[in-house]
Design goal:
The structure holds 2 protein chains of 2 kinds.
Chain A: H1 3-19, H2 27-36, E1 44-47, H3 50-60, E2 64-69, E3 82-86, H4 89-106, E4 114-119, E5 125-134, E6 138-145, H5 148-151, E7 156-160, H6 165-174, H7 178-182, H8 192-208, E8 212-222, E9 229-231, E10 234-238
Antiparallel strand pairs in A: 1-4, 2-3, 2-4, 5-6, 5-8, 6-7, 8-9, 8-10
Chain B: H1 2-9, E1 13-18, H2 30-43, E2 47-52, E3 71-77, H3 80-85, H4 87-93, E4 94-100, H5 107-119, E5 123-125, E6 133-135, E7 140-142, E8 155-159, H6 162-174, E9 179-184, H7 193-202, E10 208-213, H8 219-229, E11 235-239, H9 248-258, E12 261-263, H10 266-278, E13 286-291, H11 294-306, E14 310-311, H12 316-325, E15 330-331, E16 335-336, H13 343-355, E17 361-365, H14 375-387, E18 393-396, H15 400-409, E19 417-418, H16 421-443
Parallel strand pairs in B: 1-2, 1-3, 3-4, 4-5, 8-9, 8-10, 10-11, 11-12, 13-14, 13-16, 13-17, 17-18, 18-19
Antiparallel strand pairs in B: 6-7, 6-9, 15-16
The chains are: A alpha+beta, B alpha/beta.
Chain lengths: 242, 445
């Protein structure tokens, strides 16, 4: 997709979310925004019923990840709306029903669109890239390693957007846990170059679309050097409409 | 706005306005107004008019209308009500800038001030610019501490808060650090830190710009100007009120991104600024330590290691040159000149060390000077330091009293002197960081 087309596509998704009176984009929508902007995401498709799910799963190929798709359910794990690594149609049929039931139990009045069928990613080093609009500095990008690194140790770095490749590289190297990415005890280095690219793109996106209040790409699976990085889950929240 | 901002620091004519009739407390009391008048008469080289609305002060004019029009700058020590009452007259009088010393203006009054200056091409510093403005090169001393004038130097200080601003100047005087320009911005209805930064980055006399902030105003523009300024000269930033600020991490990161040097306390600000004003940026991590005592060098080496510096290994050629001339000089981790080292040794060894390609900067220790200090020793260090154009030299003592003596002996010379290894190493760290910034700028990153 060309730059202008990407730009239009992003605007289109943000507008339609707004029109529906929502501020939070669903995972599927967030990933479409990112994909249109050139950020690699794992393949993610909507299936409205079981027969669609079976068909889509064949295309995506097993193993797959199954997640509930509802504009009213943001915390999908909390709603027991996620199954990872389903390897057959049998498992899919079983899990599909469970996910819908769980969602109804979690939030009876939630509008449920169906599920998303997602490409399963092999284990990798997980990182987080976020963005926010700072009241005095504008679009700001955040980087950290996943899990306890961010939640407990608050090991995160910031930069203002837009940022140069060198800025992005510095913010990756600045975190205390950087050696996890650089490679310790014989592990090969992770694809930091792919992360630099994602960070720059997220910064550019937040800079150009100031109606995006927050972005959270979490987790991003970072493979060994040369093998890329892929966004496995994402959330985009729009600013309150004036 | 830069032409008006220029008049804040470089007015040809200044009107000082106060009222000393009623006994007032605080910043608009006659005592402060009289100090201002005293300071300006004592130091300022341009034309001065004093207006005392109460007519009490000897030699002062009572009526604003009787001051010749077209004055560059007015410094006003009046409470908000009196400022507003005389606002039109003030605007008629002044063609460039007005400093409002007192604070306490309400929203409506502030708006009226802003409207007034928007119409004419006049700028306002303040209100609440209590510490006023100083320019040591033309003697402008529009400040309220009686007789207070820093020594001349290449550092410019902008302070949002007046008390902290005065404290910075006070410590500058204590440490013999020279200041060129100073301004407190206060509540900034008009001129902000960013406006002053824009002026100072082009100011030839200013070598280093120091900024003390409590609130970041107009953040994007401010950071953009820092990015522009560091192409020409270093910018040092200190911020108060960080304990309550969850967004401080973002501020810290953005300062780093635009190439500013951040400091945490006033002494650090001055130490770092002094080095940046007096010595060239440091092109690497390798530091040679030249000392007359072993123990102090040990502590300096520890401090260097904590900041990621390495001890430089001198080349055989330089080592031989030094030991050929002075057989008793010991060179292992550092260069030990011996306790009785005099000016000739310091000078020769420092010159040799600086010529070594494996050295990026030098820390020189001149210790145990309480009972015998020969000023020539220290001046020899200053002499070499002033000639060094591509590698910095900083001087340090571990002892405080000796530090005072050494500092006194090189007062006004271009070598920064510190009284602890940490301070000296922090200064090198800033010089190294500014070198990196300059390199990035030159590469166009």
């Amino acid at each position: 997709m060309g730059l202008a087309a990407g730009n239009r596509k992003v605007a289109e998704i943000l507008n339609s979310t707004r029109k529906e009176g929502r501020r939070e984009l669903m995972e599927l929508e967030s990933k479409r925004v990112l994909a249109a902007w050139g950020v690699p995401v794992n393949r993610t498709e909507l299936a409205r019923d079981i027969s669609e799910a079976v068909k889509v799963a064949r295309e995506v190929r097993y193993p797959i990840v199954l997640k509930i798709a509802s504009p009213d359910i943001i915390h999908k794990s909390e709603a027991k709306g996620v199954k990872v690594g389903l390897s057959s149609e049998l498992e899919l049929r079983q899990s599909f029903g469970d996910l819908i039931d769980n969602a109804r139990a979690y939030k009876p009045d939630a509008k449920i669109l169906g599920v998303t069928i997602q490409e399963y990613l092999p284990p990798a080093r997980e990182v987080i890239v976020g963005a926010l609009q700072d009241p005095s500095f504008g679009a700001t990008v955040m980087f950290g390693l996943g899990g306890v690194w961010v939640e407990v140790l608050e090991d995160i770095s910031f930069r203002l957007a837009p940022l140069s490749a060198e800025d992005a590289r510095e913010m990756i190297q600045e975190i205390k846990g950087y050696s996890v990415l650089a490679g310790i005890r014989g592990t090969p280095p992770a694809d930091v170059g792919a992360l630099v690219d994602i960070i720059q793109k997220v910064g550019q996106l937040a800079h150009e679309f100031s109606e995006i209040a927050e972005m959270d790409l979490n987790p991003i699976f970072t493979f060994d050097d040369g093998k890329g990085a892929v966004v496995a889950d994402a959330r985009i929240i729009l600013v309150e409409s004036g | 706005m830069s032409n008006e901002v220029k008049a804040i620091f470089e007015p040809k004519s200044v009107v000082l306005v106060g009222a000393s009739d009623r006994v007032r407390e605080g910043i608009v009391s006659p005592a402060f107004f009289h100090s201002l008048v005293h300071n300006m008469h004592r130091f300022f080289k341009g034309k001065i008019h004093v207006v005392d609305l109460s007519g009490k002060l000897e030699g002062a004019i009572k009526n604003l209308n009787r001051v010749p029009r077209g004055r560059d700058l007015a410094v006003v020590v009046l409470p908000p009500k009196l400022v507003m009452k005389n606002w039109r007259n003030l605007l008629n009088l002044v063609i460039k800038a007005i400093v409002l010393v007192a604070g306490g203006f309400d929203q409506q009054q502030r708006e009226k001030l802003a409207r007034g200056v928007a119409k004419r091409k006049v700028c306002i510093l303040g209100p609440n610019a209590t510490a006023g403005v100083i320019n040591t090169s033309n003697g402008l001393c529009a400040t309220l501490e009686r007789g207070f004038m820093p020594s001349r130097g290449g550092i410019a200080v902008i302070s949002q808060d007046s008390a902290v601003g005065m404290a910075i100047l006070d410590w500058a005087r204590f440490y013999g650090v020279g200041v060129g320009k100073f301004a407190s911005t206060g509540d900034s209805v008009d001129v902000t830190e960013a406006d002053l930064l824009e002026f100072l980055m082009h100011d030839k006399e200013t070598k280093v710009i120091c900024i003390y902030l409590q609130t970041v105003r107009d953040g994007r523009r401010f950071l953009g100007l820092i990015r522009e300024a560091v192409r020409k000269k270093p910018v040092v930033v200190m911020k108060g009120g960080t304990a309550q600020d969850e967004r401080d991490k973002i501020f810290a990161a953005s300062l780093k991104q635009v190439g500013a040097i951040r400091v945490g306390i006033v002494e650090e600000l001055l130490g770092v600024a002094d080095a940046l004003a007096k010595q060239p940026p440091m092109p690497g991590d390798r530091v040679a330590v030249v000392t007359n005592v072993d123990g102090a060098a040990t502590l300096v080496a520890d401090a260097l290691s904590r900041k990621g510096f390495a001890l430089a290994k001198l080349s055989d050629k330089v080592t031989k040159k030094i030991t050929k001339k002075y057989q008793d000089i010991n060179i292992v981790e550092w260069v030990d000149l011996g306790i009785g080292a005099k000016d000739d040794r310091y000078k020769f060894v420092l010159e040799q060390v600086l010529s070594d390609h494996g050295v990026d900067g030098v820390v020189v220790i001149n210790e145990l000077k309480l009972s015998f200090l020969e000023p020539e020793d220290v001046q020899a260090i200053a002499e070499v330091a002033e000639k060094s154009k591509d590698k910095p030299i900083v001087s340090v003592t571990v002892a405080g009293g000796a530090g005072v003596l050494v500092r006194e002996a090189v007062k006004g010379k271009n070598v920064p002197v510190y009284d602890s290894p940490e301070k000296a190493v922090r200064a090198l760290d800033a010089l190294r960081s500014y070198w990196k910034t300059r390199t990035k700028v030159e590469k166009g990153v």
